[in-house]
Amino acid sequence: MEFKRQFNRRDLENLFDEDFRLPDDFMFGVANAAYQVEGGYNGPGEPLNNWVELERAGKAEPAGEAVRFWTDYPEHIELANSMGLNGFRMSLEWARVQPGTGPGTGEVPPYDEAAIEAYSDMLAALMEAGLEPVVTLHHFTHPYWLGIDLWLDRGKLALFRAYCEKMAQSLNAFLVEKHSLRPVKYWVTINEPNVYALLTYTLPFFPHGTAGLSKAAQCWSNMIDAHCRAYDAVHQVYQSHGWEDPLVSCNNFHFSTYYLDKVMTDLMLARRNGVERGDLPAYIERSKAAWDAEIAKSPHPVKSHWLNVKLEQLVDRLTPRTFSLERLSDGIDAIYSSPLSDKLDYLSTDYYDAFLRYHAKLPSFSDIREGRFTPSAELWEQVLNPAALYHFLKGEMINGDGLSMILLESGMCYRVHNGMVEPRRDGATRDRFLQGYIYEVLRALKDGVPVKGYFHWTMVDNYEWGSYEPRFGLFTVDRSRTPARISSVDAWGVNAGKVYGDIIAALGAGDRERILDAFSHDD
Predict the structure, then answer these.
(1) Alpha helices, DSSP H only, in 110-245?
(2) How many angstroms separate the CA atoms of 257 and 112, rounded?
(3) pTM flag (> 0.85)
(4) Are 161 and 233 in contact (CB under 8 A)?
(5) What is the dihedral of CA 423, 424, 428, 434, to 10 degrees?
(6) How many helices (H) and strands (E) does the chain have?
(7) Which positions ≥6 away from 270 have C-beta within 8 Å?
């Protein structure tokens, strides 16, 4: 089915009427992750993270220089400024700030103060350019010296807490004392813990030493515990220095299946909502019913095979046992034993292809020809469903009264294979993608959802977990050159950066005709 705008001129006029107001503190931004953009990992003399074994075994394309964000971030900041952005999500690479050798030594390596200072310089440059940094502490990677299966070892969670405390302390000390700036305001503890566990121990695509559903549940439980420790550590650092309270969150990847998505958020919100531990089963049951009712309103732009629909329904029935409260008990213990009842200061989420019915597939002829036998759709095959985003944003607010929400990732992908970009099967282009998804964010905002940010994944084509074939960037990268060069358009040749900038500028100006044109104009 061809991807088209899901709205017409009248819809635009109704949304952007005289009552529409974009909040002054609304953030338009982009998002990246350190390992995917910085360059300089897993080679000789370089920091080693948990992907090093896959790279060395030839099972993952080496990240190499990536897009040299570690050294060339000023160029990326200029690109962000050219679009009028005021937000920038980035992550810290634990392996860079606490490097070490391989696992098994039993020694905890010292921190690299020069690397921490370099990250503070990066954050200062963002802030001085008018870009609010949203800083992620763990984005799918950790130091190799911690072993491959860090999140299955409860004994190592204290090391994650110590790392988070160190970053909150030292980064902000540099910002305040060296740069005369304020501390970081927005933190994300762990990126998409629900996806990390599934891609590591269920499918499994990410580096792992073992696998199985029970391991995925154990990973989830420990990640909930780790988030609680990180949340408390960051808040305690700020309190001890008399700094303004930080805003700390943990973003999930949206799935339509409650127990693969919203259950983790609802557990973290339970104490804030006055739910006693013994009342959790009833609370979760009510939350699931409310979530299912809202998500059921989502449209389905592509008709799925009946077997795929049945598979989605089967997963929905089985996951309450797989990820039961008993299996998550260690994480729940951490929530209820923490000295702080709050565990999320704002809600944050990522939205791509949220319905499992679209992910399951049999290998195509091209998959077989290329030796790719994956049970799920490739990133460039994901179904785009902007109209459903409205319902997921509303569903995310269940149990979240009084909190704001930031959409920290949303993006679409092309494939570049053997140097050639392949058309998407739905014919989607990034200009229409931006218009359609931002439209739904603002529609939700107008209908009372307290959204205060939209972050596009990503600004520049980057390393997508083992491959450079997927292209998510507003700006593509010519990797046939050495060094790779950033282009002025996306992989399909659309001037996506200009389209994004035009939308931002029109909304900022408050000019209704200009806004309508920005949401309906083709690049």
Answers:
(1) 113-128, 157-173, 193-201, 213-241
(2) 41
(3) yes
(4) yes
(5) -100
(6) 19, 14
(7) 280, 283, 335, 399
Q: How many CB atoms lie within 10 A of CB 6?
A: 21
Paired tokens of 407: 């959409």
The torsion angle over the Cα atoms of residues 501, 503, 506 and 511, rounded to 10 degrees, is 170
Structure tokens at 278: 């013994």
First to last CA, the chain: 21
Specify the 3-state DSSP secondary structure of 410.
Answer: coil
Cα maximum dimension of the chain? 65
Give me 476's structure tokens. Answer: 């593509």
pLDDT tens for each residue of 245-284: 999 999 999 999 999 999 999 999 999 999 999 999 999 9
Distance CA 433, CA 353 (A): 13
SS3 readout for 209-240: CCCCHHHHHHHHHHHHHHHHHHHHHHHHHHHH
CA distance 224 to 268: 8
Q: Which run of H or of E encompasses 49?
A: none
Distance between alpha carbon 105 and the CA centroid of its chain, in Å? Answer: 32
CA angle 32/488/433 to nearest 5° reads 60
Q: Which residues are 90's β-sheet partners? A: 135
Q: What percent of the chain shows pLDDT beyond 70? A: 99
Pairing between β-strand 405-409 and β-strand 451-457 as defined by DSSP bridges: parallel
The size of the chain, in residues, is 523
Q: For 115-127, write each residue's pLDDT tens digit.
A: 999 999 999 999 9
- The span from the CA of 147 to the CA of 434, in Å, is 39
Q: What domains lie within the chain, and their CATH numbers? A: 27-496 (3.20.20.80)
How many Cβ atoms from other residues are within 10 Å of residue 480's Cβ? 8
Question: Which pLDDT value is given to residue 1?
Answer: 67
- Output the CA–CA distances (angstroms, integers) from residue 354 to 25, 256, 386, 507, in the order listed: 28, 6, 11, 28
